[in-house]
Amino acid sequence: MRGLRGCWDTARVYGRGVRLVFANRRVFAVTTLLVLLASVLSVLQPWLLKQVVDQLATPAPGVATAVLVPAVGYALTLVVPAVLAPVQQTMTVSLDDQAVGAVDRELIEAGRRLTDLTRIETPAFHDDEQHARAAAMHASHFAVFAQNAAGQCLTLVGLLVLVAGLHPLLALGLAATVVPHLVTQRRMHRSQFETMAAQSRPAREMDYCVRLTTQADGAKEVRTFGLGGWFLARYERLFEAAYAEVRAARLRHLRASTAFAFLHGAALVAGFWFVLREVGTGRLGPGDVALYVNAMIQLEAGLFGLSMSLGQVYETGLYFRQLFGFVDRAVPGIAVAPADTAEPARGRPEHAVELREVHFGYSTEPVLRGVNAVLPAGSVTAVVGDNGAGKSTVVKLLTRMYDPTSGEIRLDGRPLAAYDLAEFRTRLGAVFQDFARFALTARENIAVGDVDGPELSARVEEAARRSGADEVVASLPAGYDTPLTRLFEGGVELSGGQWQKLATARGFLRDAGLVVLDEPTAALDADAERRLFDNFRSLLAGRTGVLISHRFSTVRMADQILVVHDGRVVEAGAHQELVALGGRYATMFEMQAGRYR
Ligand SMILES: Nc1ncnc2c1ncn2[C@@H]1O[C@H](COP(=O)(O)OP(=O)(O)OP(=O)(O)O)[C@@H](O)[C@H]1O
């Protein structure tokens, strides 16, 4: 029963793989036809050779004409595959390319389904993703492997029928040599696959070492602290350990392949001996010798090739499983209300966003331990606290990058999870602490804040004006059309503060009802901070704002300030109230303000 279910499961995996990688049916059909034609011709080849030799061996009047037909036929079996080979190769490469595209699209779709960070921010996900990438590379070759195997099968059936004409047991004996080869190939491909899977973590670490020394990220520290050699040594250690396993697997493979080359060779010798014996008894003529010797040579080569191709098909099946496992696991880690029952998100919060006994931890270690707070609609709430207190974590919960472990966040009296997720997000504006620096133009870097909105160009410029990004853009060589990256020619890199102004423009592009600002002024100079601060009031007018900042000059403009400590809100009130309270807020404020007196 389990065996049957296993077979059914395997068939389903391959069926899904075939649907995925044979995306272009026309190219697939033509390449399949070419493969099958080549197979038929290679079976005809020894048979036509026999006809030619037989004609030549029995000279009779008109032999020149009689030999012409099989001779031309034989020549065609040599010429046609050779002529069609480049066509077939080009089409196969095209099939391969299309398969790469199909697999990539599947991976992007999977990424789109990961609506939150619950899985993405775990090490296990990165291993999974690394596996999926390796799987994508193999899976895209499936079309070629499968077509090769199908063509080889067809050729072998034809050749076996020919050899069976000599002696059925000889055909059976030759065919049987493939069985142990197949079993070993299967074992070898599984072990190759498992080695690859086990090496995922060191492979990621090695990749990291290579990237660190060649990319801009971390380039200054790597050079200042002379870390090139240090990372190289680290790479060498990882490589040696990983390579030892790969080398062992390769050696096992080499031993097995050599043994099977001998086995196929021995089978061939036995076949030749049988042919010679039959010649001796007078049962076979010269044409038969040409036929059977050729057929047996092709048969053994074909059997060898088939076991290799089937091994590759088998391994690709394992990769398919891995790829589809990744794709199927790409589901939201947060609760997503079904479209038909989801609450439509309102343009702007009408009453309040409320956090009720919110608990959360990324692992077993709690970060938030019962946060209670009310964020009145249309007002700005600032969140302050020490490093690591959990402020950005609150932002992740408000933007639904995670769901609370327990407790609830409510928007106008309804749980956040009850709202249509996509719609809720379109009502959300955000400037994240670790905002993205897209390798796009200045205009696009702002426009991505509302790609579906109307009159994008005018709104981009308006948002840039309000965030101070317009001055940054004015200084760029091609203005809004300047690529903001040194990856491409003509691109420029911005300073941290300049990037922050663009990220702020992006965050305010949408007509969002709920806006979260996580350290929006951290990189700004005093003047830019003051101007943005002056603008915040008008930027946030009528919206519900959540502002996280260590800068009390920014924080004090909030209508309400929450002080987070030890995973809870320990103080709440307006700036003056909290200063008067003389608690944590007053102490933090005094420490910062005192430095400027
Ligand atoms: N993706 C994550 N996975 C695991 N732990 C995390 C993750 N992000 C944050 N943490 C942990 O959660 C805690 C709170 O982090 P958070 O970023 O919310 O602090 P914060 O108050 O915003 O700090 P800061 O003022 O330094 O920005 C920290 O101990 C941090 O190590």
Describe the structure.
There is one protein chain. The chain has 3 domains: 9-329, ABC transporter transmembrane region fold, CATH 1.20.1560; 346-427 and 514-597, Rossmann fold; 433-511, P-loop containing nucleotide triphosphate hydrolases (Rossmann fold). It is built from 21 helices and 10 strands. It has helices spanning 2-21, 25-57, 63-113, 123-139, 142-164, 168-176, 178-198, 200-214, 219-224, 228-280, 286-329, 391-398, 421-426, 442-447, 456-467, 469-474, 496-507, 526-540, 552-555, 575-581, 584-595; strands spanning 352-360, 368-376, 380-385, 406-411, 414-415, 428-431, 514-518, 544-548, 560-565, 568-573. A hairpin with a 2-residue loop joins strand 9 and strand 10 (568-573). Helix 2 runs antiparallel to helix 3 (63-113), helix 2 packs parallel to helix 5 and helix 8 crosses helix 10. The N and C termini lie far apart (81 Å). Adenosine-5'-triphosphate binds at residues 121, 362, 367, 385, 387-393, 433.
What is the helical fraction, as a range of percent?
A: 55-70%
The rounded distance between the terminal residues' Cα atoms is 81 Å
Q: Report the major sheet.
A: 6 strands, mixed
**Category by helix and strand content:** alpha/beta
- Stated plainly, the CATH topology of the largest domain is called ABC transporter transmembrane region fold
Report the mean per-residue pLDDT as an integer: 88
